[in-house]
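User: My collaborator sent over this chain with a note saying "see what the structure looks like." That's all I know about it. Can you take a look?
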Amino acid sequence: MCKALGQCRSTQRHRPRTRDDEDDLTAAIVALARKFGRYGYRKITDLLQMAGWEVNTKRVQRIWRSEGLNVQAKQPKRGTDYAPPAAREPALALS
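Assistant: Without extra context I'll predict from the sequence alone. Here is the result:
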């Protein structure tokens, strides 16, 4: 085919096809990422599959990256004023 057209084979590229439900899926992923901020793309994939979407992890990850989504950082634990009972009571002087 390429010889008949006089073109190199390296100039012929596969055109990626977009799916019909790509926009709906993207909206669903963004909505779930906002609702569950600490969930990553794998957990979001599980939620989508439970909801009836036929998606795999690679597809969700590709959309996740293209939308610039990130998992929210964990809040640092607040320190408590816990001290063992011996440290709270004043030392008794034995005389």
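A starting point for your reply to your collaborator: The chain is about 45% helix and 0% strand.
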